[in-house]
Amino acid sequence: MEYLVQQLINGLTLGAIYGLIAIGYTMVYGIIGMINFAHGEVYMIGAFISIIAFTILGPFGFASPIVAIIIVLAVALIFTSVYGWAIERIAYRPLRGSFRLAPLISAIGVSIFLQNYVHMLQGAKMKPIQPVVRGGFVLAQEGTFVVQITYLQIGIIVATVALMAGFTYLIQRTSLGRAQRACEQDRKMAALLGVDVDRTISLTFVMGAALAAVAGLIFTLYYGAVDFFIGFLAGLKAFTAAVLGGIGSLPGAMLGGLLIGLIEAFWSAYFPIAYKDVAVFGILVVVLIFRPTGLLGRPDIEKV
Amino acid sequence: MGQVKPAEAFREAALAALIALLLAIPLVGFRLVDGLRGLSIETRFDWVAWGVSAVFFGRLAIALSGTRRRLLPDLKSVGAALSNLPGGLSRFAGGAMLVGALLLPLVPFADRYVVEIAITVLIYVMLGWGLNIVVGLAGLLDLGYVAFYAVGAYSYALLSINFGWSFWLCLPVAGLLAAAFGVMLGFPVLRLRGDYLAIVTLGFGEMIRIILLNWKDFSGGPNGISSIPRPDFFGFPFARTAEDGQTTFHQLFGLEFSPMHRIVFLYYLILILAMLTNLFTLRMRRLPLGRAWEALREDEIACRALGINPTMIKLSAFALGAMFGGFAGAFFATRQGFISPESFSFIESAVILAIVVLGGMGSQIGVVIAAAFLILVPEFLRDFSQYRMVLFGMAMVLIMLWRPQGLVAHRSPSARLGGRA
Amino acid sequence: MSLLTVEHLTIRFGGLVAIDDVSFAAEDRRITAIIGPNGAGKTTVFNCLTGFYKPDVGRMCVAADGQEWLLERMEGFRIARDAGIARTFQNIRLFPKMTVLENLLVAQHKALQRASMFSLAGLVGAKSFRLAEQAAIERARGWLERCKLVHVADDEAGSLPYGAQRRLEIARAMCTGPRILCLDEPAAGLNPAESAELAALVRSVRDEEKIAVLLIEHDMSVVMEISDQIIVLDHGRKIAQGRPDEIRANPDVIRAYLGTDEEAVAAP
Fold first, then answer.
1. Which residues contact A127 (CB under 8 A, 6 or more apart)?
2. Which residue stretches of C182-256 are H helix?
3. Which end of chain C is less crowded, N or C, counting CB atoms within 10 A of the terminal residue's CB?
4. Number of CB atoms found within 10 A of residue B68's CB
5. For residue A112, which residues of chain B lie inside 8 Å, CB to CB?
6. For chain C, where are the alpha helices, taking DSSP H only?
7. C227 plus C191 within the same structural domain
């Protein structure tokens, strides 16, 4: 039982990371109908920028870990967003409106480029840092086994929930959100009605990148080590999460992320850990067979 | 196109430089260094300065000369000429390529290195042609094609090692097994919309790789399978000395032993396999099933209204595409003599897909050009191995920007009213 | 028994009853027009008949050659393949990158696929398949001639002018060898001369082939001229049924559908 609770906490933390990345996939897919294959690499870049920022701050001493994290967060948000913006501007925008697979191949190219670019600049080795936040609450104890929720985990879950709330507000209540939803429905019509479509799409990429940066920071804090390859699998799983939740749906992305985090945590606890990714994809296939548009996706009525 | 005002050009260049600066500072400007006491930082602001000024002056030069707008159309017209090759000319080009391929091992400069690379290119040509059935003709986005390649490779490796089956027996079995995997995967997921299919196939590819990596008793895990039997010439091995009662290839033909024999044999073998794939596809395009593939790519709803069962048509494309992947896999295993899960990672699927899309969806000759390009470029960049993959990714983006519809976008009809096409 | 019998057809989308208890029958060698204001549920009837929607209530039965097919129980492609219902679409759905001839060959998939023995005979180039393919091309040529498309047979379907695309869609539907042909606004976007030509084509199909034609059309001149039977839908319900002269005189139709705009009826 205690073990179960511990895995639940771990799974939620992991799920928060996947969910934040998944939102980036789902938003971009919703607005321009493409799989932004490079999004996983944006997350990896976010993690790298975070770890670099922490290392730079290191010698100044952490007056308070919270201050350090806020500074790093700001740095990571800004620089990662620029990457998100630049990718769209350089590699996707010229291909908008051309043949369906062209942007996908371009995205795969960007993904290969970014991965190897970071590899080339920062080396292949795993980069570890000292834990920034320590300690936590002990929830239960049984013999030597301690169920603990760390301050970090609490912070992650609170931050994710806050981000989700803010984001939902942004999409539903602000003019930017309205423009975004209008572009999703009908880009041409939105343009005719005076929505700046280019700007809206750019901002979508920037927001996606910003959330990926947060996910990258969380990863850095939680696992304490980063390498150039983390983007691929995390991106893959986050995209799986977006599809599982119903692509195009923001709550779906979060739900999908949480589910995948939980599946991974529980599978790792009770079954051979090596096959946890197989389990994740297996569940995706099963869900899609019974609900082809994902858990929260709108069933699309075929227009004939 | 009017003259560009210098002030305007300057502003654009400054903006580009600013963006470049923001991109470069965190990852180029600082480098993490592992030390005894954890990470430390090394700065490389000189690199940033070089990069940013290169972007600034480059952008300024382009903006001032106003060539950006002229350069692209120029390149585009070259591409248009490529794609508008009339049917006869493209057939001529295909014939010339085939003759060239047949003669390649005989030309003087074709040393071991050249032929080996040619074999690699041909493997990718074959994979491209196989995937072209799925993506180019049937329009199904398959991001896990490498899984079928892996199934073929492991089928041959395991069957020949454990049961002593010959290559010629294993080849069809490998193809059939791969096709069976295609059907197994396809049956539940082919109802899904295009992009869902993409993620499921991608997941499937990863699943196969993870299983191969972890099921050590079966696949040897990360160490893979080594000493896979090499091919022989229909029962006559390519060996320096024969085992008891056997005749080697060079004895059979009264030649001096040379390790090149086997390589040249492998070359012709993959050439034949690839050409079979090509002929099969060309033939299928003229058959009702092949036409149904293309029709399905164009409009699935119209297909249903014409009494075509979309699931079966998709499944057939998926299975046949997988089969050729399986053949190629078996060839890969016998050529390398060693396989491990590392050879079947997602990047392979991405490269094969890129070959199909860059070639121009559905174009057979486009696949050859794209495969040659994508395999040879990294090969020539071998000396810059550090930058190889960076340049590779960049090239993929640039080609897509240059020709989004692929190198050869021409489609020749499968039937003509005036007689055969 | 009629070739096509529709009884108590009802379908709801959420709270909206798109079709409410509609029954009708259609016969061989007859043109049955379904008319009604926008949103009356005309295309939805077609979508039910051709299996794109499953009705909530109702029975749709095709009876021919001593066999019966219950459409509501069949998958869409089977309805086209086995029961023999072919259709065109309001917003033309051709295979745009394929040639006109190829479009017509895809329509003959069933026969050709059998002749090619699921590609095996085709791959080895068997004579039986070559003959079947020749026959299919001849059949396509016949329809191209009737639809005045022979000269563009080898052009991409997507490159044809709008009117030609409409005719090609009809030719393609006819190449499936249907028992029932459903035309969804075939005259939409055509000029008067083209409309008249189209009307003649539809009438010749009725007169020369043993099939039933179902026609959704807003162009009243076409409807009144060629229909043998007209069914009027309004808000998903059938409000009238009869010969063109009966419909023209029907006060319910004039009130509910035509409103004050009586010119549309009076014109022909």
1. A51, A225, A226, A227, B32, B34, B39
2. 192-208, 220-226, 244-249, 251-253
3. N
4. 14
5. 347, 350, 389, 392-393, 396
6. 42-49, 76-78, 100-107, 109-115, 120-123, 127-146, 162-175, 192-208, 220-226, 244-249, 251-253, 263-266
7. yes
> Is residue A302 included in any domain, yes or no?
no
Interface predicted TM-score of the whole assembly (ipTM), two decimals: 0.91
- Among positive and negative, which fits the CA dihedral A189, A194, A198, A203? negative
Tens digits of per-residue pLDDT, C80-124? 999 999 999 999 999 999 999 999 999 999 999 988 887 888 888
Three-state DSSP class for residue C20: strand
**C214-251 pLDDT, tens digit each:** 999 988 889 999 999 999 998 899 999 999 999 988 88
- Domain boundary among the residues C147, C177, C207 is at C177
C-alpha–C-alpha distance, residues B271 and A189, integer Å: 52
Interchain CB contacts (distance < 8 Å): A and B: 188
Q: State whether C154 and B416 contact (CB < 8 Å).
A: yes
Q: Please provide residue B274's backbone torsions phi and psi, each rounded to the nearest 5 degrees.
A: -65, -45
User: What CATH number is attached to the domain comprising C77?
Assistant: 3.40.50.300
Burial class (CB within 10 angstroms; exposed 0-12, middle 13-18, buried 19+) of B64: middle
Residue A66 identity (one-letter amino acid)? I
Same domain, C165 and C104: yes
**Is C89 domain-assigned?**
no
User: Could you say which of C150, C177, C204 is where a domain stops?
Assistant: C177
Q: Domains in chain C: how many in total? A: 2
Nearest C-alpha neighbor of B368 from the set B413, B406, B397: B406
Please give, rounded to a whole number of angstroms, the shortest distance from the CA of C228 to a CA of chain B: 25
Residue of C nearest to A303 (CA): C52
Question: Which of A182-196, A212-226, B45-59, B334-348 has the weakest average pLDDT?
Answer: A182-196
Range of the domain at C213: 1-84+178-268
Per-residue pLDDT averaged across C173-184, rounded?
A: 95
The per-type count for chain A, helices as H runs and strands as E runs, is 11, 4
d(CA C93, CA C89): 6
Does A296 fall in a domain?
A: no
Residue C69 DSSP label: E
- In chain C, residues with a C-beta closer than 8 Å to the C-beta of B136 are none
* Residues C71, C191 within the same domain: yes
pLDDT of residue B199: 80
* Rounded (5°) CA angle B398-B400-B402: 70
A297 belongs to a structural domain: no
A303 falls within a domain: no
Partner B contacted by A282 (CB < 8 A): yes
Query: Are B284 and C78 inside 8 Å of each other by CB?
Result: no
Q: Which of A82, A102, A120 sits opposite B23 (nearest CB)?
A: A82
Chain C partners of B304 at a C-beta cutoff of 8 Å? 51-52, 76-77, 80
Q: Residue B96: how many CA atoms within 13 Å on its side-chain side?
A: 6
Say if residues B304 and C76 touch (Cβ distance below 8 Å). yes
Q: What is the pLDDT of residues B110-169, one digit of tens each?
A: 788 899 999 999 999 999 999 999 999 998 989 899 999 999 999 999 999 999 898 889
Q: Look up the CATH number of the domain holding residue A214.
A: 1.10.3470
Contact A112 B393 (CB under 8 A): yes
In terms of domains, do C159 and C229 share one?
no
Could you tell me whether strands C180-184 and C85-87 are parallel, antiparallel, or unpaired per DSSP bridges? parallel
Say if the Cβ atoms of C95 and B298 lie within 8 Å: yes
Judged by DSSP in three states, B265 sits in helix
Q: What is the pLDDT of residue B298?
A: 92
Neighbours of chain A (3+ CB pairs under 8 A): B, C
Chain A contacts of C182, Cβ < 8 Å?
none
Say how far apart CA C230 and CA C238 lie, in whole Å: 11
Query: Measured between beta carbons, which residues in chain A are less than 8 angstroms from residue B38?
Result: 128-130
Give the total residue count for chain C.
268
